[in-house]
Design a protein that fits this description.
Helix content: 25-40%
Radius of gyration: 23 Å
Distance between the termini: 52 Å
Low-confidence stretches: none
Largest sheet: 7 strands, mixed
Mean pLDDT: 94
Structural class: alpha/beta
Bound molecules: fe (ii) ion
Length: 549
C-alpha cells in the first residue's frame, strides 16, 4: 500500500509516506516554508496544509498523487463535540471543524491528480498512538500512552497494542488536559504557547517546587485512568511575565512545581496502565512526551521495563502515525522505526555546486569527521550538515551545531550564536559504548535525546558545558553502526581530548526552523560566528573568508 500521512489542523504541519509498511520519508512543513512550526497555532491557520512537505515526500517515494492508495488526515471531524460541550470555550472551534471537513477537497487541490475520496480521517490520538506503538522497537505487544494537548474530544489515550491492533482502555475527556495545562503555564511565564514548553522544563531546574499543595488540589490523577487539571490560577503562584521581562525565582518556582506535579500525574497514569495490561514495555507519544525529565521518571519509577518515545512525539508525528495505522489495518506489516533521519539530503555534487554558486572558498579534507574533530578540539564551533535531515524537533547529528564540552563558557557561546536564553542547556552526544561510564539513571542507548541522565560526579568538571544546573544532561548516544560518520567524529575528538562527548544543539538561530537545505546552511553560517561549516565532505572555514575566526 502507498499511503501519504498528513498532519495539518493544530501544530507542526507535516507529511509522511509509508510504502508497504515501510516509512520512506517524513518531514515537517517548516523545513520547506522556513516558518517556525509551519504556521501559527491559531484557528484561522487551520486550513493550511503541508503542501511542500507532502509534495517532497511523494517525490522521494517516487509516487504520484494518483498512485496513492490512501491519504490519512490525523483529525476526524465526525468525532468532535460542539464547543459548548468541550468546555474549552474556544469561539473558533466551529471554524476549525469546517476546515477539517473540507480537508479532502483542499488536499485534492494541493496535490493535483489525487482524488478527494482517497482521504481517510484518523482519530487524532489513534494517530499519535500508532506513531509510537507500531514503530516501537519492542518484540511483541506493548502498552501505549498518548499525552497531548487536545484531539477531537480528548487529551490523552491509554491503551495496548496486541498483534498490531490498538485497544483503547481510557481516554481523558476535555477540558482536562496536561498539554493545555503546560501551555497555559508557558504563556503565563512569558513564553510562546504551543512552542516553548521545553523552556518551562529547563526553567524548572532553577526553582523549588514550593506550590505542590496548591497545584495538587487542581491537578491530579483520579485513579480510574484519567486525571483532573482545571482551576489553577497561575497569578496566585507568580506574576504574569511578558516576553521582554527577566524571569525571577517566583517564575522558576512555578515551573518547578508544575513540572513535579506533571511527573506525579504521569507516574500515576503509567501505574494504572501497567495494572491493566501487565505489559513489559511502554510506548509514548503526544507533545507532553517530549518532556524528557518526566520520561526519565517514567523509565526509572514505573513498573515498565522499557519506555520508548517516538522522536516526532508532537503533532508532526501524527502524519507518520496515521499512515502507519492505516497501513497496518490494510494488511501491511510495520517494521521497527528506521531512525529520525527521514528528511531531505543532497549529493556531494549538489553540495559542491551550492558552494561554488555562493563563491565561497572551501576544501575537501581526507575525512570530514576528522577535520571537524580537530576544529572542535581547538575550541571551534562547527555547523554540521550531513545526510538526511531529522523528523521531529531534535538535532541528532544531521543538522547540528557542535562545540567542545570541556569549556563551561561554550554553553554561553552557543546560546549567543543562536540568540537564545542563557538558562537553556545544550546536550551532549556521546559514543554509545562509553555512555554508561559517564551517564546513569536514564535509559542507554538513548539515540533520540528524549530522556535526561545524571552525569557521573567525576565527569561533571570534565564536560561542564554539557551539564545542566541540576547535574543532568539530555544525552544522545551514538552507535557506530547506525551513525558511522558522527561516531567517527566523536572518536577523533576523544583521541585528541580524552573526552568521548561533544555538545550538540540544533542548527538554527532563535525563532527560525532548523536548517534543512544547503542554502539554509549557508545563510546560517553567514550570519553567525561559526568557525567551520562541515557540509557533506566539504569544509568552509571562517578564517578562509578573511575575517576573524
Ligand atoms: Fe496532538
Amino acid at each position: 500500500m502507498r499511503i501519504l500521512g498528513i498532519n495539518a489542523l493544530y501544530h507542526d504541519p507535516s507529511a509522511a509516506v509509508v510504502v508497504d509498511g515501510v516509512t520512506v520519508a517524513a518531514a515537517e512543513e517548516e523545513r520547506f516554508s522556513r516558518r517556525k512550526h509551519g504556521k501559527r497555532p491559531v484557528p484561522f491557520s487551520a486550513w493550511e496544509l503541508p503542501e511542500l512537505a507532502a509534495a517532497w515526500c511523494l517525490d522521494q517515494a517516487g509516487v504520484r498523487p494518483e498512485e496513492l492508495d490512501a491519504v490519512t488526515y490525523s483529525f476526524d471531524p465526525a468525532l468532535r463535540l460542539p464547543p459548548t460541550q468541550l468546555g474549552l470555550f474556544d469561539p473558533w472551534d466551529d471554524l476549525r471543524q469546517d476546515y477539517a471537513q473540507r480537508a479532502p477537497e483542499f488536499l485534492a487541490t494541493a496535490l493535483p491528480g489525487l482524488e478527494a475520496s482517497r482521504i481517510r480521517f484518523v482519530q487524532h490520538h489513534v494517530a499519535h498512538a500508532a506513531s509510537a506503538g507500531l514503530a516501537a522497537p519492542f518484540d511483541g505487544d506493548c502498552a501505549v500512552l498518548v499525552l497531548d494537548g487536545r484531539g477531537e474530544q480528548h487529551s490523552h489515550l491509554a491503551g495496548r497494542f496486541c498483534g498490531g491492533a490498538l485497544h483503547t482502555l481510557y481516554s481523558q475527556q476535555l477540558p482536562h488536559s496536561l498539554g493545555l495545562l503546560y501551555e497555559d503555564a508557558t504563556q503565563h511565564l512569558g513564553f510562546l504557547r504551543s512552542s516553548d514548553e521545553y523552556k518551562v522544563m529547563a526553567l524548572a531546574s532553577y526553582g523549588k517546587p514550593r506550590h505542590l499543595d496548591y497545584l495538587r488540589q487542581f491537578v491530579h490523577a483520579r485513579g480510574d485512568g484519567g486525571f483532573h487539571t482545571s482551576g489553577v490560577e497561575w497569578s496566585a503562584l507568580a506574576p504574569k511575565r511578558s516576553a521582554d521581562q527577566p524571569w525571577t525565582a517566583e517564575h522558576a518556582d512555578l515551573a518547578s512545581s508544575l513540572q513535579t506535579v506533571l511527573e506525579e500525574v504521569l507516574l500515576a497514569l503509567a501505574d494504572w496502565l501497567y495494572d491493566q495490561t501487565h505489559a513489559r514495555n511502554l510506548a509514548l507519544a503526544g507533545g507532553v512526551a517530549l518532556n524528557c525529565v518526566a520520561n526519565t521518571r517514567l523509565f526509572t519509577e514505573s513498573a515498565f521495563d522499557q519506555v520508548w518515545v517516538q522522536p516526532a512525539a508532537g503533532d508532526a508525528g501524527t502524519a507518520l502515525g496515521g499512515a502507519l495505522y492505516l497501513a497496518q489495518r490494510l494488511g501491511d506489516s510495520i517494521p521497527e522505526f528506521p531512525g529520525a533521519d527521514l528528511g531531505r539530503e543532497w549529493t556531494d555534487e549538489e553540495l559542491e555546486t551550492a558552494l561554488r554558486t555562493a563563491n565561497l572558498p572551501f576544501d575537501r579534507p581526507a575525512d570530514i569527521a576528522d577535520a571537524v574533530a580537530e576544529e572542535l578540539a581547538n575550541d571551534g564551533i562547527v555547523a554540521w550538515f550531513q545526510g538526511r535531515s531529522e523528523f521531529g524537533p531534535r538535532a541528532l547529528g544531521h543538522r547540528s551545531l557542535l562545540a567542545h564540552p570541556g569549556r563551561e563558557s561554550n554553553l554561553r557561546r552557543l546560546n549567543d550564536v543562536k540568540g537564545r536564553e542563557q538558562f537553556r542547556p545544550v546536550a551532549p552526544m556521546v559514543l554509545a559504548s562509553r555512555a554508561p561510564e559517564l551517564f546513569s539513571r536514564g535509559p542507554i542507548p538513548s539515540p533520540y535525546m528524549l530522556f535526561v541522565h545524571d552525569v557521573a560526579a567525576d565527569w561533571r568538571d570534565r564536560i561542564p558545558a554539557a551539564v545542566h544546573v541540576d547535574g543532568t544532561a539530555r544525552i544522545q548516544s551514538v552507535d557506530a553502526s547506525s551513525e558511522p560518520l558522527v561516531a567517527r567524529m566523536l572518536a577523533g575528538f576523544e583521541q585528541r581530548t580524552g573526552l568521548p562527548v561533544v555538545i550538540n544543539t540544533s542548527l538554527n538561530t532563535a525563532g527560525r526552523p532548523m536548517v534543512d537545505s544547503p542554502r539554509d546552511a549557508l545563510e546560517c553560517f553567514g550570519s553567525t560566528p561559526v568557525d567551520l561549516l562541515a557540509i557533506g565532505p566539504f569544509a568552509v572555514r571562517r578564517r578562509s573568508l578573511g575575517v576573524a575566526g
